[in-house]
Amino acid sequence: MIRPLAEGEAEACARMMASTDPWLRLGRTFDQCLGIVLDPSRETYVHAVGGSVRGFIIVNMRLGVFSGYIQTICVASEARSSGIGSRLVAFAEERIFRDSPNVFLCVSSFNPRARALYQRLGYETVGEMHDLLIEGQSEILMRKTRGPLLGR
Ligand SMILES: CC(C)(COP(=O)(O)OP(=O)(O)OC[C@H]1O[C@@H](n2cnc3c(N)ncnc32)[C@H](O)[C@@H]1OP(=O)(O)O)[C@@H](O)C(=O)NCCC(=O)NCCS
To answer: What residue ranges define each of the domains in the chain, with the CATH number in brackets?
Structure first.
């Protein structure tokens, strides 16, 4: 049920993203979201049922020591809290761990439910970046690791 983004599905992903927090609060427009989903330097995977996209995850493998960065994860509002987000994260981890021992992600300080989910899935807080995207809020960098980048 999880596979690479297919042609014609990017708009549905961008609509899903642009219509919900945290991107609403961050002021992301539909066009900006579409640009993020279609960015060719990243990999986008969708959870689809019968051709209908229920959620997606974007992975960035081109960030040097921070490779394996989960850029975006979003599940359709009516499909949340039924395990899709956890399955998308597990899929991304499997993909990332093939090439790198670290998975990184950021979560906004005003998104405690998502942060709680990542903690349950084994992510540890690395640090907090104050006023990174909007004033008065932080982005919290989290990491799940299987070991050092250079081995041993
Ligand atoms: C965060 C998100 C991807 C998780 O997907 P999901 O399919 O709901 O996740 P699961 O069913 O595997 O796990 C459920 C947990 O997700 C979190 N969650 C559920 N709804 C959420 C929401 N609207 N916003 C943030 N986190 C949410 C909660 O921790 C929830 O556990 P709970 O039901 O015990 O409170 C999804 O809820 C979502 O798209 N939220 C809005 C966008 C977002 O916050 N993305 C993450 C940005 S870092």
So the answer is: 2-105 (3.40.630.30)
